[in-house]
Amino acid sequence: MKYHQIDRDLYVKNRAKFTAQMKPNSVAVFNSNDIYPVSADSTLPFAQHRDILYLSGVDQEESILLLFPDAPYEHLKEILFLKETNEHIAIWEGEKLTKERAFEVSGIKSVIWLQDFHKTLKEVMAYAETIYINTNEHYRAVIETETREARFIKWWKENYPAHKVEKSNHILQRLRSVKESEELDLIQKACDITEKGFRRVLQFVKPNVMEYEIEAEFAHEFLRNRSKGFAYTPIIASGNNANVLHYIENNQQCKAGDLILLDVGAEYANYSSDMTRMVPVSGRFTDRQKAVYNAVLNVKNEATKMLVPGTLWKQYHVEVGKIMTSELLGLGLIDKADVQNENPDWPAYKKYFMHGTSHHMGLDTHDYGLLHEPMQANMVFTVEPGIYIPKEGFGIRLEDDMVIQEKGAAFNLMRNIPIEIEEIESIMNS
Length: 430
What we know:
By secondary structure, this protein is α+β, with helices and mostly antiparallel strands. It contains 13 helices and 18 strands. The strands form six sheets. Strands 6-5-4-1-7-8 form a six-stranded mixed β-sheet, with helices on both faces. A hairpin with a 4-residue loop joins β15 and β16 (about 395). The chain starts with 8 loop residues before the first helix and ends with a helix. Its cofactor is Mn(2+).
């Protein structure tokens, strides 16, 4: 891995939190992701399943974690199953985890080669009454590919139909949404790498540059700072492209006078950052661009004040909508009649701001979190309002990553990334 080794105490704590919520005499199983084929002998880069990573720190394919806190024998309470490494694999693919190295990474003493998984599971299931299966129930998930986890669940149901079933996801949604201090440090590192990329881009942008050239500048800076690259597919959207919310082609020329929307974030140790900034191609914002920019910035600042323990996500977005409505009235984009006659299910402001303001962030860019439950300290949320005006040829979105505090204002992990108009213009024209 490119990143520095993470203290295994984090994973020891994470497992303890999970097992504390398991029912008596139950076992939980977590599988790694597959390596997905492209064609011929080509594959996509491996990305570990975030749940087994969260609980073990193992960032390797063909790995399984088994947790059985009430096991009658100590060596069955926590088990890592890994593909057995050998000299041939080391030569062709590079070093894989040995049993000793797996303990250093995870803190799990019982490491068994994967070829003995079924034999060990058979013994475990003879003692256990319940199994926790790990399904993906994220509210944004659209799953069309059968995962390694899904194949295991199908196999398990056929071979152990008499056991009770519980789901891991409900526990993980809560646990993963509240970050440990070590996790906050890793997200901060990802944000710091994103800052370096953005400052590099501010010196690089000029009229006629291509969007993909800007993407390349970010990639260069991310990789040279121990990141694997982008936490998500980057959006480099100049001019009217910014009005396409998930524009990812990044293949157009940036023209003088236009703005560029940069929705980009580095990952670090599989933790995400998620930033959006606006850059004027010519180094200066026009008066109209400034007015809209400052309106979005004000909405972001006001929304951030509401990120405190106890806030309900749904009501939070209602209140943000009221602030955005006021800003759009001031910009002349809507009038009082639009507001008076609005559809409550699609308020007038939605014409120019049609997406949500915040989402959980962590190991996934759109991270786990139960949105019907109140916000808590050490949850990380994005704040990303926007105003999109196709008729005027530009859209503006601004986004920071915030940590909710026990008391006081949320802590901005992107506090050092330029966002004020004056600072952006100053750097671009220095």
